[in-house]
Amino acid sequence: MAASEAAIRGDMQAAPPAQAESGTAPVPPAETVPATIFVGRQAQIREAADALLAGSSVVVKGKAGIGKRAFLRQVRAAVQADGGRITLWPSVATAKQFGFELCEQVHGAIGLQVPESMIPVRFRAAAYRTGTVPFRHIKRALARMTAADQLQLALGSLAGRSDVVLFVESLEVPPTQADMLHQLAEHVQLAATLEDTNRRARVMRLLWQFERTLELKPLARAEVRAWVEDWLAEHPLHFETPRLREAFITAIARDAGGVPAAVEGMLAAAAAEPEVSRSTVREMTHDAATRYLDMTPMLIIMAAGFMALRYVSRGAGMKELMVMAGVGTSLFYVLLYFSRMMQAKR
User: What's the whole-model pTM score?
Assistant: First the structure.
C-alpha cells in the first residue's frame, strides 16, 4: 500500500480480555462504577435500553439533582448486558479531551484507522507486518492534533457502522462540542442527559437527533427509604438513641423530596457527624430539595395591569393614576430583573 494512503487498524488485542469479548470501550472508573446506591426506575431503564437496542437515540430530561447521569450509567450497563452494541462514553469537558477520548475508545473497541504519518518510524515495520498498532504508539501524535482532526479520524472509523452508542453525560456543552455531537449523530446513536430549563439554540438543534425522550420524576418515598436503609447497612452511623434511626430515615424520605442529590447530601452531612442527634435530624436539608416558586404568571399579570392602567389614566385624564402606573411599571422591571438573576443562579 502507498505510504501516503496507508491505514493501520487499531490493536484490539491490546485491550483486556473482558473488554475485547464484550466489544465495549475503556472508560474512566468513575463512569463504570457508580459511587452511590441506585434504587428504582427499573422500568425506565429497561425502556431506554430497549430503545437503544432498537436503533433509536435517547435523551433523558429532568431537573438538576434528579439523578440523570446515574440513570444513564444504569442504562449503559443494561445495554452492555444485552450485547450487540458498542458503547462509548468520552468526556465532553473540552473539545480536545472529547476528541482524544473518543479516538482512544474507538481504537479500543473497533480499531482506529490511522494514517502512516501518525505511527513513529521505528514501529512502522511491525504495523505493516501485523496490520495493527497499539494505542500507545499513536497517543502522542493524536494529542497534537486539533479537535476537528481528531473527530474526522474517529468518524472515518465509525462510518458504515450501526452498532455504536455514544453516551454523553450532559448536553450542556459549548458550541464546539455541540457541533461535534451533531456530526457524530450521523454515524452513531446518542444517549444523553439534558436539564429541563435548557433552551439554547445549539441544544435545540441537537434534539432533532433524538427519537425517544424520557423524563425522570422524583423518587417515591418508599424508594428513598430503601436507599437510606441500604446505605446505613453499608455505612453504620452512631445514633443518640436507637429510636432515632427510624426518625432519621423518615426525615430524609420526607425532606429530600425524592431528589437523589438531596438524599446523597443529607447522608454525607450525617456521616460527617460523630453522632446523629435529634438536632441533626431536625436541621437536615439540602439545596437540591428546595422548590422554587415560578413568578412568571404573576409578572405577566402585573405587566398587563400596569399597561392597562396607563391607558385608563390617559383616557380619564387622571394624573394620579398615570403616576401609579409609572411607579408600577418601574417596579415590574425591577422584579423582572431579579427573577432573571434567580433563574440564572439555578
Answer: 0.71
